Amino acid sequence: MGRKIRIGSRASRLAVVQSELVMAEIRKILPEADLELVTMKTTGDKILHKTLDKIGGKGLFLKELDAALLAGQVDICVHSLKDVPVTENPALPIGAYSVRELPADVLVFPKETSHWNPALPVGCASARRKMQFQQLYPEAVIQPVRGNVLTRLEKLDSGEYGALILAEAGLKRLGLSDRIAYRFSPEELVPAAGQGILAIQTRAGEYADLLARLNSPDGALCAKTERQLASLLGGDCSAPVGCHAQLHGTDMTLYGFSGIGGVPRYGSVQGNRNDADLLVQQLASKLTITE
Question: Which UniProt keywords apply (predicted)?
Answer without folding.
Answer: Porphyrin biosynthesis, Transferase
